[in-house]
Amino acid sequence: MEQGPPECDEVLASLTDYLDDALTPGRHEGVAAHLGVCPGCAAWLAQLRATIAALGCLRDGVVPPPVLTALRESFSR
Ligand SMILES: [Zn+2]
Question: Does residue 24 lie in a domain region?
Answer without folding.
Answer: yes
